[in-house]
Amino acid sequence: MNVRGIGMNLIETKDLIKNFNTTEVLKGISITIKKGEFISIIGPSGSGKTTLLYVLSGLEDYSNGSVKLFNKEVNTYTDKEISKLRQRNIGFIFQFYNLIPNLTVYENVLLAVVLATSDHKNNIDQTLDYVGLLNYKNHYPSQLSGGMQQRVAIARCLINDPDIIFADEPTGNLDNKNSLVIMELFKRLNQELKKTIVLVTHNEEMIRFGTRYLKLTDGVVLADEQVIR
Ligand SMILES: Nc1ncnc2c1ncn2[C@@H]1O[C@H](COP(=O)(O)OP(=O)(O)O)[C@@H](O)[C@H]1O
Ligand SMILES: [Mg+2]
Question: Does position 1 have pLDDT exceeding 70, yes or no?
């Protein structure tokens, strides 16, 4: 696990603008995300949270301004470099887990290792144990609760030891109890494994699990605050 470089800039945007056709969705966003932070992005539906997450991670291009990811302007990465980053340096967690239904828990995680052709793979059993699912490694996703499926997705994301984990409403499909389990897990990834986390949520109660939050409204950052713990 890479715990060095705490505090260095991983992402830096300046006057970031994103248009969809003629609509300006992100209206000049300047933020810096440092290694070791756990940032929640909150804001009403349609405020641009998902778009911002995708632009920060290089999944979506941008229209104007600057976005630096690992100290390099994102639009100067080649497609091949971006796809390598996604496999090796960046992890994604989505609201609906995106597991492959006809593969077991173990195979879902293994597939990420195979696809990444990475040289810093974590051990699959150890990673499943870390998220509390080692006893379920031969189960299929449909045999698991939503919260457990999300933990498989988190194991799949951890397996290539990413520097940054991006999560888009990871508890959006879960009841309160499972939501808290997942948020506690993200907090452990941040505190124990020193993962940098950028997590979108519409639930302001989830802010307390992180170290900082951004409040987005209509494509503008209205608040950027540290969380007092
Ligand atoms: N692919 C797209 N094409 C056109 N408009 C889009 C697209 N994706 C998002 N938008 C628009 O951008 C705005 C912000 O969307 P989004 O980032 O998904 O917000 P949030 O995640 O905060 O709900 C919305 O008005 C949405 O309709
Ligand atoms: Mg969204």
Answer: no
**0.90 exceeded by pTM:** yes
- Reading phi first (left if > 0) and then psi (alpha if -120 to 50, else beta), residue 58 is in left
pLDDT of 17 higher than 60:
yes
- Take residue 184 and report the two structure tokens written for it: 């506690």
Mean residue pLDDT of the chain comes to: 94
| Residue 201, ligand 1, Cβ within 6 A | no
Ligand 1 pocket check: which of 18, 23, 25 to mutate, most ligand atoms within 8 Å of Cβ?
A: 25
CA distance 81 to 61: 14
Q: Write out pLDDT tens, residues 127-146.
A: 999 999 999 999 999 999 99
For residue 144, which amino acid is it? L
Structurally, at CATH architecture level, domain 37-47+78-226 sits in 3-Layer(aba) Sandwich (3.40)
Return the ligand number nearest the Cα of 169.
Answer: 2
Strand partners, 72: 69
